[in-house]
Write the structure tokens for this entry.
Amino acid sequence: MLKSGASALARNFESRDSVACQREMLQRLVAVGGGTRFGRDHGLAELAGEPIDRLYAQYRRRVPIRTYSDFWNEYFQEGLREENGRKRLLLEDATWPGKIPFFCETSGTTAPTKYIPFSREMFAANKRAALDMTACYLHRNPRSRLFQGKLLYMSGNTNLTDLGDGVKSGDMSAITLRHRPFFLKPFVAPGIRVAALPWEEKVVELAGMLLSDRSIRGISGVPPWIILLLQRVEEMGHRSLSELLPNLELIIHGGTSMKPYRREFDILFRNRLPNYLEVLPSSEAFMAFQLLGEERMRLAPHYGVFFEFVPFEELDERGVPAPDAPAIPLEEIETGRRYAVILTTCSGLWRYHIGDTIRFTDREPLFIEFTGRDKFLDRFEEKVTQGEVEEAVARLNQTGGIEVREFMVGPDIASRRHVWVLAVGEMNERDSGTLERLLDATLRSLNADYATFREQGRIAPPRVVTVEEELIYRWSREVRGKLGGQSKIPHIDPTVDGEMIMSLTEFAGH
């Protein structure tokens, strides 16, 4: 019965008209948001009921593209107050009707912390997306035994902060884990006690759980942290993963590209690979997921979000579009072109620049490639993207003799060059000169501006520093104060002057 129901949901998902869905979505969001302060400021109520083409033209004219800082300064900050040294944050009818019950704190790589509104409508939309993704997996893998066991969910810190008036904030994974539907509880591990442990203790507990509980059939998390967990399982179990985890059939990954880590997964699992599904969730919206057997993720325009896209070329040197940048709806996208994603959501974000960039590789279905975030390696105007640096490391890992398990690249402003810190295993080739030449050649092949600037001598050859894998995590813990299931090492130094990459190289003694 479960599989027949999953097949019905999967067929429904695959038969939906994405463009028609998006047009209806914008009409619905504008109608709902019209009574809020944001709606009054922009005359949204006047647009409700207009034909969609006229509505969209007016919406685009009246509502500028905004960043998080814009929303914070204009609409969110007024809900913040301090009481007895405690932070309170209440948004009620500000940009979305009613009270916002949750705020997702970005795990992010930059400070300060962002508080992303997360409405009950968005919570419900995310659950529908997860249900559709699971249904599609079961439909395409009828021999799956996923629901005869559990999914191990590698969440971040599960402690939620009380912001007063019943409002909570925390990592999005913590919010979804703590407030998951009751009927999913038998299928999700770990429980709240283990999920709330400090990161190092939690990894040990999760490894022990994987070794002792053969009913765990899937793992969900960020690729480098899943690898750490699997390595701990091997260390504790003293055998290969294929022997230790014979029932593991699925790894759901997101948060950062799988490319730099894929070879390590292959080595860990050797000749018995699990299925992989990539997802593109965020604190703002659930944007895309992969179907079993397909190479890329599909954009998922059905879950409380209206999408627009700004051509990559329109972004400024910070990777940010102008408020009146030429955005286009889904029906006007071109395959092969890179776009910044603009969201209008059922949590009260209107024409919001999320900072992610994607490239459509097909229209039917809407296959996309995640090409990075707004953290360009661009201090010398080269505009190298996160996707390109991750691809460079992925190709490095394919050459043999080196296994990069974590990395960061940033600018050395004084020397006008890139500095790469590569965290590698103990037995890896450490010829920095070879690594520098390989990374340089790959980036030249991927990015025309970088290639030109290198030929012109405007950017000097890169410098590579190799470190022990543990060192980079120790630096993150001791210097950044960040280490956990959803806290990532930034692959591109987000600071303006390369402060972070310099901190890491100094910590490594170079």
About this structure: The first helix runs from residue 2 to 15. The longest strand covers residues 352-360.
